[in-house]
Structures are given as structure tokens and as C-alpha cells.
Amino acid sequence: MKKVFFLLFILCSITKVGYAHYFSESYSSWNIVDNKISATFTILKLEATRVLQIDSFQKIAEEKKLSEGEVFLEYFKPRIAVLNLGKKCIIEKQAALVAGKEEYHTIEFTYLCDASNSIKIINNVLFDIAQSHVHLSRIKKDNQIFEKALFYNDQTILLDELNKNEETTFLSNLSNFIYSGLLHILTGLDHLIFLIGLFILVNSLKQLLLVITGFTIGHSITLALVALDIVMPNTLMIEALIGFTILFIGAEYMIRDKESSNATLGILIAILVFVGFSSIFLEISISLITIIALILVTVGYFGMIESIENSGFFRVIITSLFGLIHGFGFGAFLFNSEFNQSNILSALFGFNLGVEIGQIIFLLFLIGITTFLVKIMSSEKYEYLMKTSMILVSSLGFYWFIQRLYF
Question: What is the domain range of residue 83?
């Protein structure tokens, strides 16, 4: 029972260091008619809170008593510009928050330029906070549609070049999204923590490869379904469920200890029951039906793995299901971008390839670290380190699950 109380202490002690988003993205659409350029910029509200990491904007929020959306608008305005022949275009309509999708901030603004040719759009929004940020732009001019993904190393849109290089869009997007997928893994704290949890939980390299493959298949399926507009997820719920998948992995490791298995399962069910009751009275992003489904899956899964000797098959199944959840994150990103079919395919393939490369790099790093630790530590100390690490994994999962639902 001491281990259970220690786990509860850690769960209640997680602080701001655990704050992380699954992926950093934003979208914009531009409509050019003669010399008038109208634009709409969209970003997930949760994602926009990254701005509050900057001390100066925290100060602005406190002094001017601004809402999170208004603070983001203050950050946004100086980081967007439109130029014509190197000269800044006039702002006809100042950037302002408008009504849009409930989970998103929507900003509209308009520029007037001297001419409609040689247009250059500069977008530095969030790249100074998250280097893995990706922005997807859709530009309409003279009944033509151009699309471009912006990255940390490329934050400008040259309309003339888009027109000339339209045939190379697939290959350029492919390489950019490979880079994006790689950064997504190596800078995405919640995904890395999930991989650490799997690595500690699974004893053999063969089994680890199976569960990682199952996770990748699940991730790829939902990414494609959402990107191709077949399924539309609740983004905030998915963010919270990613936290739950991490907590679930930690709970499975703790249940190996027969002395505290019932208590561990009880804590996990109690958390879900609490969230289920609160969903009745509070407006949170997860429904009571979803919580009931999670409870049934949790009880059923842990009941099966305790009653059978070879639980590897069921672990692959549950990890694949968790891959389905994780895959909604980037899939929602592509869905909201409204990219055309060919660019979606290049993004899907490139991003998944980047993810796989990133996962392999990180797993090789973990193998190297643990191999070194096994050589220099006694088996008792190594086992204690793994248990402590898994408690931290569970704590972060709990924190993200609750924080993304209520805050």
C-alpha cells in the first residue's frame, strides 16, 4: 500500500513542467481579388495558450485583464505581414477575433496592396515558441488554389513561386512533412513519455517491436481517416485521451505487483468515475458514454491479463487501439487545413515516415541508456529505477488527462 500512496502523492504533485501539447499547428486561408487580400487564421484554443509561456505576454494579460484569445491576438498582429514588391501592404481591416469553431480561435483581417502580383506573405506566428510548429496555408487567386506548408526554416509564401513550382508541390511537401514527423516525435513530450512507458512495460525486444508496430498501424489508420474527411474527431477529447493512454500503460506496470494490483486498478477506475460524474454537471470535452466505454475496456483488459500467462497478444491489441487515439491528433491538423487530395497523400506518407524514423532513433537511445545502466547498477537498483520512472510516467499521464479536460 505504501507504493499506492506514493503514487497518489506524485499524481497530486505534478506541476507546470508537465504541460505539453500533442502537436503544434495552425491554418490560414487567403483570398486575393484584384489588389485586396482577405485572410482567415485558425488555431486550436489550447494551442494558443503557448503564448502565455512568454513573460511579457503574461504581464500584458494581467495588466490589461485580457482573455486568452485577446492575449493571443496581441501576440499575433506583429507576426503577420503582406508585402507587394517589397513594400508593406496597407491594413484595411485590423486583425480581430470572430466567431468560429468552438474549440478554435478564428482571426480575420484584410490588406490592400498596390497590385496583385509579386505578393509575399510572412507568417512568424508560434515558430519562435515551438520549432516543430507547422502552418498550412491555402491561397485562392483568379480561380486558382495554391497551398503551402510553413515550417521553422521556411515562414514565407511567394505567390509567384507557387505558380511556377506547382508541379513540385508533392515532393516539396513530402520532404517537409518527413522533417515535421521527425520533429513531432522528438519534441513531443507526451508521445515520448508514452514510448518510455511501453519500453519499460515490455520485457523483450521482439514484443516491443510488435507493440510499436501495432501502435504505428493504429496511428496511420486514423490519421488517414481524418485527413480524408471520413471521420471528424473532438480535438480536445483526443488530447485528454492521449494522457489517459499514458496513465493506462503505467497502471498495467503497477498491476504486476500483486500486493497493490487491486488498489492500482481501483485508483484508475475511481479517476474515470470522477470524470464521468463531472461530465454530467460540467461542460468538458469527454462524454459520459466515452467514460463508460473506457471503464469497460479497463476492467476487461486488466481482468484478462491477470488470468492468462501470455498477455502479449492483448497488449498488441490495446496498443493498436491507443495508436488509433494518437493518430487523430495530426489527422485533425490535415482535416482543418483543407489541403487537396494529392498534398494530403504526400503529407500522410511523409509524416508517417518521419514518425517512424523518430521512433527508431528514440528507441535506440533508450536501448543504449538501459544497456549502460544494467552494466553499472545492481539488479535491485535498476528495478527500483524502472519502478520510479513508471510512477513518473503514470503521473504525467494523469496530469495531462485531467489538465486537458478541466483547464
Answer: 25-164
